[in-house]
Design goal:
The protein is an alpha/beta fold and about 240 residues long. It has a single domain, classed as 3-Layer(aba) Sandwich (Carbamate kinase). It has eight helices and eleven strands. This is Uridylate kinase.
């Protein structure tokens, strides 16, 4: 297969996906691998937006548990996503892929502010757009950011790349060897079974806007391209 199934996608990367086995910080080899895989699908003509988490640097929930004001802790998490986004931008551009970072919190010396129409124009010009700083509001996850931005830019699918699991299971496969891997489920089933793929706010946005979600492993080289070309890997989540 040499053609892409999707015209415009949102690639959701967790912060941990950038840290490799360490679980914290940035792993240059992992970032380079992701950049190479993004280049592969860019060469198929796919319009690519990326949302990156910040859990490899800071988690707002951890700060809140330490007694920190939740909003302050979440803003720190947004800054962590910007650091990850700039690292990914640098690697993509070193691979010859024109990239723009847009932030929900303005910092013009570092990146563009998020403007929906400008983001769409970048995508039409085949530039990769990285959405950083979440939604710009505390209490909202980067999963919600991915769902919101996908709706705003009219993306057909969210590709949720995981570094420690290859899809959605009925239970934790590391604990329960008999856990069933789903090939396709609905958002309602995911919520009713408490599968923890994404939070309820993000799920509702996806359901309301008929956005498909595919959960897959990013640790195997070339998986992003396989998903974009329609190979049945990972788990597909759709509306009822």
């Amino acid at each position: 297969m040499s053609t892409a199934r999707y015209r415009r996608i949102v690639l959701k990367l967790s912060g941990e996906a950038l840290s490799g086995e360490h679980g914290y910080g940035l792993e240059p080899q992992i970032i380079q691998s992701i950049a190479s895989q993004v280049k592969e699908i860019a060469e198929l003509g796919v319009e690519i937006a990326i949302v990156v988490g910040g859990g490899n640097i800071w988690r707002g929930k951890v700060g809140s548990e330490m007694g920190m004001d939740r909003a302050t802790a979440d803003y720190m998490g947004m800054l962590a996503t910007i650091m990850n986004s700039l690292a990914l931008q640098d690697s993509l551009e070193n691979n010859g892929i024109p990239t723009r970072v847009q932030t929900s919190i303005e910092m013009r010396q570092v990146a563009e502010p998020y403007i929906r129409r400008k983001a769409i124009r970048h995508l039409e010009k085949k530039r990769v757009v990285i959405f950083a700083a979440g939604t710009g509001n505390p209490y909202f996850s980067t999963d919600t950011t991915a769902a919101l931005r996908a709706a705003e830019i009219e993306a057909e699918v969210i590709l949720m790349a995981k570094n420690n699991v290859d899809g959605v299971y009925s239970d934790d496969p590391k604990i329960n060897q008999g856990a069933e891997k789903y090939t396709e489920i609905s958002y309602m089933q995911m919520l009713n079974e408490g599968l923890g793929v994404m939070d309820a706010t993000a799920s509702s946005l996806c359901m309301d806007n008929d956005i498909q979600l595919i959960v897959f492993s990013i640790t195997e080289e070339g998986n992003i391209k396989r998903v974009v070309q329609g190979e049945p890997i990972g788990t597909t989540i759709k509306g009822d």
